[in-house]
Design brief:
The protein is mainly β and about 120 residues long. Helix content is about 0%, strand content about 50%. The protein contains no helices and eleven strands. The strands form two sheets. Strands 2, 4, 5, 6, 9, 10 and 11 form a seven-stranded mixed sheet that branches. It is globular, with a radius of gyration of 13 Å. The relative contact order is 0.31. The mean pLDDT is about 95.
Length: about 120
């Protein structure tokens, strides 16, 4: 059973940057890996997804110009580079994995989740 754990969250001032990491207990092969976030009182929001094998990725329009997803196949690690952070980016950020190839922006199709890492952006 694949297990995931996020790291790299913290407190940052608006306009700053953070790089989140997601480590896996086993290879991500045959999976798509994604980042989601959830702010208090809001639904879990899709941010970006990457095909582990090809590296092809897709990002939500809301973060397309500021967030960048990448992966390190050799180290089974997933990353999310977040630039020009805003207060509204404050949320718990999750990495997730699925063997599905469809509906990859939908949280329900992801079978494996990390516990999340808190990102707080101050004014």
């Amino acid at each position: 059973q694949l297990q995931l754990v996020e790291s790299g969250g913290g407190l940052v001032e608006a306009g700053g940057s953070l790089r989140l990491s997601c480590g896996a207990s086993d290879t991500f092969n045959y999976y798509a890996a994604a980042w989601f976030r959830q702010a208090p009182g809001k639904e879990r929001e899709f941010l970006a997804v990457i095909s582990w094998s090809s590296g092809a990725y897709y990002k939500a329009d809301s973060v397309k110009s500021r967030f960048f997803i990448s992966r390190d196949k050799d180290n089974n690690a997933l990353y999310l580079q977040m630039n020009r952070l805003k207060e509204e980016d404050t949320a718990v950020y999750y990495c997730a994995a699925t063997k599905s190839t469809d509906r990859l922006t939908t949280s329900q199709i992801y079978s494996t989740w990390g516990p999340g890492t808190q990102v707080t952006v101050s004014a």
